[in-house]
């Protein structure tokens, strides 16, 4: 059994002997009294597409800027390809960054922007021309080579910024919210383009984003950050299906959190007791929590079934409820049902047919139920 | 500026970055700050028939004891003199009064102009703005000079009024305080209109619409919405007129009369006509102290506005 | 309706701008007056302009003024741009508030004080007064104006553009000349023009700090104005006003053309492609 799709046979993080390409060792960054990054350690492997995900002010951008050299760590070490980066100024680091604002040079043409980095290295002119041409082809910008940045649309500017940062073939490409300024449709297209490029160029990409969908689409692994610390590092599917704590569960997607106490631990799994209304939760998951301990049971809305009528049989992995609110979204409908005065649960139902024989309506009495392996026990 | 610097980290600087700070810093220390200490020192000296026309001169080659003797010669006599001769404190008072009245008149004239500009069609605004700035680029002296021909007894204004039959005999305007008011209002009008226009232009029209929608008639909306929101611009503009007007020399000298007292003119006469460098230095020190308060107030206000914008 | 110009707004604009421009217009008109009496029209003539070019003293003064203005504006632009960079970019350093104070104080300081204090400095330094002392004095106050103009340009500057250059391997000093300077250049030019006009215009500071052989045009005009209004002075003023007007209008036309071009480009960019 596996969790989610696995890309290629590329899982260096599971190999204890693999040598990390980028390594943060106990890095702390303080701005005055404010601690932006707290004693953080992280390993990223070569050719990985790695995402730093978190809300604003969580330290993800600071972490990236320390790798690029625009900020210096207050404590700790950053290594890239075995080299300690301490004291190396930004213009000598083998990383290139695609800026959130794109930061295109307004007084230079598209070509000149792309060639800028190459010219700094005293590369032969023919070589530069060839490389610029290749980049223009790769980003489909051939027709715009002579234009200035202000003569381009948002999407084109984004591609120039990408081409410029790729031109030097950096060891690591840093992407700082690269798609934030694009509209939704263009953003989705570009996400796939980015993945293809990374695949084709066989480079290491590090992306900073606050958009969970973006991170889940493009990245091999995601580090979820909060208040300067990494909360969980895993593949997108693992992050979604087995969040390590309430914060991650809540941050990624939609979730129902049910308070419960551990009733019984056995070889086949765990039994939990929820109160108000009382029902039992049986899961095949083992937990570190001791019997009698208070835990949370996290259940994604799409994993909750909703049916007419009261529950039959024992109240295990099911509960009666009253439909409170319905949101029709087109592809799915979201039901908010009340278990009691203070407890609600959300369930998502795919609208697989255009019409429904007996639609569930407001104030209907329903049964909510789920499978043994649908939810996760969280202790924090 | 200082406000943002507090949040800024103290960066590690290269030699070049230190040089960037050091060069303009050094220039200003030598040519702006140091002269004030010299002015202060000379304001404590005595007038003398010599070159330069004051004693002591502090020649360091004469040794320590001479230095100490010279130090003993410094005194506050000139400041005492400033309080004894009523010419000086009358000049100070009159400067503040003339600058105050002129600032008020400039505001009276400038507000409708700034308001008219801010409410004009969008495509006119750049042109109107340029028309306000253009006189600022032409010589101050020329603009003041232009008024002499208009205001003098046989000048164009009197010719016009006489031919219209509005007056029987020429008005005496040139060489009076009235002419000085006109000169200051005319010269400093752009300084007031520009910040005022900036704050009026930012004002969201929908605020006035909301006020009217809630039952407030336009004239009251003007007093209750427009005026309070343009206050930062009014204050900035008034400081920009008042502060330099207090120390004005050219306008009172060319347009004012013999009994127009302004401190800038008094200082000039003391220096160039009477060659009394110590007393004119003392006048300058007092003028500076007089202006420190409005300058600091102005800086604080600007800083508050900058913080608000950020 | 609400956005349309009301009669009150139009009236105040017309009156306001008449007040601003009428005196200058009259001055220009009377420079073409045949009569020596400045306020009585005696027919059209350009003879005062002819006489102007015979007046060697006036021409000398004009030449000195231009040299002082050009030199002081150029030095002030370099120093002022540096100061602006320090104010916007250097973060905290010891004496920062003194530095920003020294930048802003000259903008509102009465000229008589600036002039007197600089003169006393030159006397204390035993420096012979003349061309160079005027030049230094003008540089000192003009650099503060340049700093303020360039600073406003720098504040709106996206710092990540510089970071991008460094990220692509460009050392800081080179980044300044290849990236920063070209982008803030319009502000630097505007600063230079302002410094140049301020120097051209200055009477008070020049009067204090000048010496024999370095009489500037405003000083010359001033000494003649004190003796009364003459058509020659009107003619000099007209030439100066004309030059400045042409300069400012040309500058604004160029900016406007660039802006129109830019807007056209932007429309092009967002059109079908």
From TrEMBL, chain A:
GO terms for biological process: putrescine transport. It catalyses: ATP + H2O + polyamine-[polyamine-binding protein]Side 1 = ADP + phosphate + polyamineSide 2 + [polyamine-binding protein]Side 1. Pfam families: ABC_tran (PF00005), TOBE_2 (PF08402). Keywords: ATP-binding, Cell inner membrane, Cell membrane, Membrane, Nucleotide-binding, Translocase, Transport. Gene3D superfamilies: 2.40.50.100, P-loop containing nucleotide triphosphate hydrolases. It comes from the Bacteria. InterPro entries: AAA+_ATPase (IPR003593), ABC_SmlMolc_Importer (IPR050093), ABC_transporter-like_ATP-bd (IPR003439), ABC_transporter-like_CS (IPR017871), Mo/tungstate-bd_C_term_dom (IPR008995), P-loop_NTPase (IPR027417), PotA-like (IPR005893), Transp-assoc_OB_typ2 (IPR013611). Its EC number is 7.6.2.11. PROSITE patterns: ABC_TRANSPORTER_1, ABC_TRANSPORTER_2. GO terms for cellular component: ATP-binding cassette (ABC) transporter complex. Residues 22-252 form the ABC transporter domain. SUPFAM superfamilies: MOP-like, P-loop containing nucleoside triphosphate hydrolases. One of its GO terms (molecular function) is ATP binding. Part of the ABC transporter complex PotABCD involved in spermidine/putrescine import. Responsible for energy coupling to the transport system. The complex is composed of two ATP-binding proteins (PotA), two transmembrane proteins (PotB and PotC) and a solute-binding protein (PotD). Belongs to the ABC transporter superfamily. Spermidine/putrescine importer (TC 3.A.1.11.1) family. NCBIfam families: potA. This is Spermidine/putrescine import ATP-binding protein PotA. It comes from Roseibium hamelinense. The lineage of its organism: Bacteria, Pseudomonadati, Pseudomonadota, Alphaproteobacteria, Hyphomicrobiales.
UniProtKB/TrEMBL annotation, chain B:
GO terms for biological process: transmembrane transport. Belongs to the binding-protein-dependent transport system permease family. CysTW subfamily. It is found in: Cell membrane. Gene3D superfamilies: MetI-like (1.10.3720.10). Residues 92-298 form the ABC transmembrane type-1 domain. It comes from Roseibium hamelinense. Its main location: membrane. This is Putrescine transport system permease protein. It is a multi-pass membrane protein. The chain crosses the membrane at residues 15-38, 92-115, 127-148, 179-200, 221-246, 277-298. InterPro entries: MetI-like, MetI-like_sf.
TrEMBL record, chain C:
Signal peptide: none annotated. It holds the Pfam family BPD_transp_1. Residues 62-254 form the ABC transmembrane type-1 domain. Keywords: Cell membrane, Membrane, Transmembrane, Transmembrane helix, Transport. GO terms for cellular component: plasma membrane. The chain crosses the membrane at residues 7-32, 68-88, 100-124, 130-150, 179-200, 233-254. It is a multi-pass membrane protein. It is found in: Cell membrane. One of its GO terms (biological process) is transmembrane transport. Belongs to the binding-protein-dependent transport system permease family. CysTW subfamily. This is Putrescine transport system permease protein. It comes from Roseibium hamelinense.
């Amino acid at each position: 059994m596996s969790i989610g799709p696995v890309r290629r046979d590329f899982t260096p993080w599971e190999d204890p002997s693999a040598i990390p390409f980028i390594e943060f060792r106990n890095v702390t960054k303080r701005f005055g009294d404010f601690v932006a990054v707290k004693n953080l350690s992280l390993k990223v492997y070569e050719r990985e597409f790695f995402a730093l995900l978190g809300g604003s002010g969580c330290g993800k951008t600071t972490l990236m800027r320390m790798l690029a050299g625009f900020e210096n760590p207050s404590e700790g070490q950053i290594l890239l390809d075995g080299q300690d980066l301490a004291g190396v100024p930004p213009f000598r680091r083998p990383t290139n960054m695609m800026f959130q604002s794109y930061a295109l040079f307004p007084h230079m043409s598209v070509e000149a922007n792309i060639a800028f980095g190459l010219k700094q290295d005293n590369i032969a002119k023919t070589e530069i021309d060839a490389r610029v041409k290749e980049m223009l082809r790769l980003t489909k910008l051939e027709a715009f080579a002579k234009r200035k940045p202000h003569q381009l649309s948002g999407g084109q500017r984004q591609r120039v910024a990408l081409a410029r940062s790729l031109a030097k073939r950096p060891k690591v490409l840093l992407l700082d919210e690269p798609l934030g300024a694009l509209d939704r449709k263009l953003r989705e297209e570009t996400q796939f383009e980015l993945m293809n490029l990374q695949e084709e160029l066989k480079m290491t990409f590090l992306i900073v984003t606050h958009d969970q969908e973006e991170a889940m689409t493009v990245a091999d692994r995601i580090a979820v950050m909060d208040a300067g610390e990494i909360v969980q590092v895993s593949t997108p599917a693992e992050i979604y299906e087995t969040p390590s704590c309430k914060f991650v569960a809540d941050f990624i997607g939609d979730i129902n959190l049910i308070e419960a106490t551990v009733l019984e631990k056995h070889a086949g799994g765990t039994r939990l007791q929820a109160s108000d209304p009382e029902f039992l939760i049986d899961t095949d998951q083992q937990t570190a929590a001791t019997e009698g301990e208070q835990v949370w049971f996290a259940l994604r809305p799409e994993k909750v079934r909703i049916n007419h009528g009261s529950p039959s049989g024992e109240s295990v992995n099911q509960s009666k409820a009253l439909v409170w609110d319905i949101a029709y979204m087109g592809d799915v409908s979201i039901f908010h049902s009340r278990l009691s005065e203070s407890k609600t649960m959300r369930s998502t139902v795919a609208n697989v047919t255009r019409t429904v024989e007996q639609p569930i309506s407001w104030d209907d009495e329903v049964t909510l139920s789920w499978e043994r392996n649908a939810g996760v026990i969280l202790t924090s | 500026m200082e406000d943002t610097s507090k949040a800024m980290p103290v960066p590690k600087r290269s030699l070049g970055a230190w040089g960037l700070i050091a060069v303009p810093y050094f220039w200003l220390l030598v040519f702006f700050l140091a002269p004030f200490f010299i002015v202060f020192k000379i304001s404590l000296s005595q007038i003398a028939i010599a070159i330069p026309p004051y004693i002591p001169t502090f020649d360091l080659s004469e040794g320590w004891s001479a230095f100490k003797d010279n130090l003993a010669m410094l005194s506050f006599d000139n400041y005492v003199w400033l309080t004894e001769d009523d010419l000086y404190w009358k000049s100070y008072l009159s400067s503040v009064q003339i600058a105050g009245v002129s600032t008020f008149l400039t505001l009276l004239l400038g507000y409708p102009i700034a308001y008219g500009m801010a409410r004009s069609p969008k495509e006119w605004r750049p042109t109107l703005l340029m028309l306000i700035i253009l006189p600022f680029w032409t010589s101050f002296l020329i603009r003041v000079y232009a008024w002499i021909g208009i205001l003098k007894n046989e000048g164009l204004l009197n010719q016009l009024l006489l031919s219209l039959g509005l007056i029987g005999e020429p008005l005496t305007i040139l060489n009076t305080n009235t002419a000085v008011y006109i000169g200051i209002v005319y010269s400093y009008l752009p300084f007031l209109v520009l910040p005022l226009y900036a704050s009026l232009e930012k004002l969201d029209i929908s605020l006035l619409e909301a006020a009217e929608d809630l039952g407030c008639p336009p004239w009251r909306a003007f007093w209750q919405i427009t005026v309070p929101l343009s206050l930062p611009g009014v204050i900035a503009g008034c400081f920009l007129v008042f502060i330099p007007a207090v120390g004005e020399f050219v306008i009172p000298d060319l347009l004012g009369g013999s009994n127009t007292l302004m401190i800038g003119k008094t200082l000039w006469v003391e220096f160039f006509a009477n060659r009394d460098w110590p007393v004119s230095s003392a006048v300058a020190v007092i003028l500076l102290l007089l202006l420190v308060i409005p300058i600091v107030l102005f800086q604080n206000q600007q800083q508050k506005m900058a913080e608000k914008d950020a | 309706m609400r956005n349309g110009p009301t009669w009150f707004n139009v009236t105040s604009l017309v009156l306001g701008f008449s007040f601003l421009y009428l005196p200058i217009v009259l001055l220009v008109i009377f420079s073409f007056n045949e009569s020596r009496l400045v306020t009585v029209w005696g027919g059209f003539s350009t003879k005062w302009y002819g006489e102007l070019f015979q007046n060697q003293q006036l021409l000398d003064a004009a030449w000195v003024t231009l040299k002082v203005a050009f030199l002081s504006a150029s030095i002030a632009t370099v120093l002022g741009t540096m100061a602006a960079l320090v104010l916007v970019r250097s973060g905290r350093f010891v004496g920062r508030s003194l530095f920003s104070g020294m930048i802003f104080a000259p903008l509102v300081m009465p000229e008589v004080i600036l002039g007197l204090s600089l003169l006393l400095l030159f006397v204390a330094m035993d420096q012979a007064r003349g061309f160079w002392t005027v030049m230094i004095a003008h540089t000192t106050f003009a650099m503060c104006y340049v700093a303020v103009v360039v600073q406003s340009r720098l504040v709106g500057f996206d710092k990540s553009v510089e970071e991008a250059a460094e990220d692509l391997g460009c050392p800081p000093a080179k980044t300044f000349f290849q990236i920063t300077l070209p982008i803030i250049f319009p502000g630097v030019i505007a600063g230079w023009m302002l410094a140049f006009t301020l120097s051209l215009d200055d009477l008070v500071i020049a009067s204090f700090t000048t010496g024999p052989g370095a009489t500037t045009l405003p000083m010359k005009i001033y000494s003649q104005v004190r003796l009364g209004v003459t058509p020659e002075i009107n003619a000099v003023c007209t030439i100066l006003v004309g030059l400045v007007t042409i300069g400012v209008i040309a500058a604004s036309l160029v900016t406007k053309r660039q802006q129109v071009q830019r807007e056209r480009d932007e429309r092009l960019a967002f059109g079908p492609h």
